[in-house]
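User: Could you check the structure of this?
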Amino acid sequence: MPPRHLADLDLAARRAAVAALGEKEFRAAQLSTHYFARLERDPARMTDIPLTARDRLAGDLLPPLLTPVRELQCDDGATRKALWRLHDGSLVESVLMGYPDRVTVCISSQAGCGMACPFCATGQAGLTRNLSVAEIVDQVVYLAGVAASGGVPGSPNRLSHVVFMGMGEPLANYPRVIEAVRRLTSPAPEGLGLSQRHITVSTVGLVPAMRKLAEEDLSVTLALSLHAPDDELRDELVPVNQRWKVAEVLDAAWAYAARTGRRVSIEYAMIRDVNDHPWRADLLGKLLAGRLAHVNLIPLNPTPGSKWDASPKPVEREFVRRLRAAGVPTTVRDTRGREIDGACGQLAASEESA
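Assistant: Sure, the predicted structure tokens are below.
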């Protein structure tokens, strides 16, 4: 794991760390204000802290965690994808997406992923390791700084939404992801001060962790990557389904909705001639009708050399029509970043093969 960072600690632990370095405890609040409130990651710019103290504190609490490898943009600058190299050489990605009313970041929680979903570039790469709390948070702070500097034209200057939908299975890195959520949503200077309701945590369906999440007293959105309504196909598309079947995964999702009052987002990648049949739309509608759920259909962003491709638009529209006819709220995700290796894991894969 990487060296300890300010963002790994709550404010009390930061004070203790600062005191252990022989500095006054109020320096912890100064560092935290720079990092979380001013989105300043460079210790050299924290000039209200004396140089000798700054060097000592930065060496212990502000080590560099993310080294930029590539940063690409498209959609007239509204979509920016960053590829980072971590201290051990691992690669992770994050994406900034600007809209007229909000700015969203999609972040990684692991380097690689161990879930082995065959249509996903990250799943094909396998798992390298879990990210630390600070490695997760630092992605958000960096991209929040980009937004604050006016780097996303036509969008607000303040980051408002975070989705854990980048590389990795968030609930497989459970303790660090939960701590990162608390850091993102704690008021400054302890954290970034985002709304819990504007945080989305995705999962392929790790049932015990889903049930544990329901007990955390958090009001984040749970996004379930379902991708098939029947066990036969889901066993292939989402291999963890061989451990927890569709019915059990949905039961855990409904328990989360009941406990939190939050609508569950059902993620469904539309894959040509694989999971886009009308009867599967009808079965999905039957499973979700009357539930506190919303379907987010995702036009597949094909990975190079993959046999999987996106469903044709007429097929997608019929799928939507059938779900809505069953009374299930359904939207089609805005496709962003296709020309910059936008699918999760594609940019890292292209860098590894370069």
